[in-house]
Here is the input.
Amino acid sequence: MYKILIAGIGGVGGYFGGLLSKEYESHNDIEISFFARGAHLQEIKDKGLKVVKGGNEFRTRPKLSSNKPNDIGIVNCLIVCTKVYDLEEIIEQLTPCIDNQTIILPLLNGVDSSDRIKSVLPNAQVLNGCAYIISKIKAPGVVENFGNIQTLYFGIDQKKPTELVELEKLLITAGIEAIHTDQISKVKWEKYIFISATATATSYFKSSIGEILSDNKKCSLLKELINEVTQIAKAKGVAISVGIQKEVLRKLESLPFETTSSMQRDFMNGNRTEVSSLTEFVVKTGLELNVRTEVYTKMLEKLLTQK
Here is the structure.
């Protein structure tokens, strides 16, 4: 029996976890479980998880949905899709599900998730990973993917272990656009450039992506954010692709005009935000590496007053 646990059934975990649950719902050798909380968990228990994408939708019931790690037991693969600020707490809670053979795959917005997991569980098998997806909880028990990008990357730098090739096959069979790469640090940082600059700009301007791209001044500052965080990545020795700014803008232009970032929505709803990981991290790392981050610093000062 191969057991997969998805921790955090929000936009990311709900979409990918939903596809996994749907594919392997009646499978005898693969078991999918969800770790969730509150009304969302109760609705999933009562009616299953509903996943919506465009005009298509489906409802699925995982093998187990719970907020009690001991009920889930040891798993082969733990996919972590919580908010960055909950990471250490979640890992500590889920230790009853983890042994030395468990593969842990974080799909969070920051770039230091793997290191933070290892600080809690030094002997754990932790991958690097990231996901490009625009999705959210629409209502308790309902997750909607409202973008046209839904790709999951994972791996270990300069290695392609056999078990990860098998995991890739398992994910792809479930309809997930999964890519196993031995250049995951490069992929992860390029995703961070995308999400950090976008989250910071949309939250600072309180504007959708389309509104920012159609305003010359706002778009110019967005480009400055992309340049600043790119310089941080390069200073850390990451081989960022030539033309990364054009690639980020191309992805943003492909999204619906009204698309917002999850951090922007959290600010608007008065929720706890990921500003520490997505904006402040860039400023602090810039100071450490002597890389200028003038636009990030300016926007951070305003965003911190909105917390």
User: Anything to note?
Assistant: Residues 184-205 form the longest helix (22 residues). The chain has a mean pLDDT of 95. The chain is about 50% helix and 20% strand.
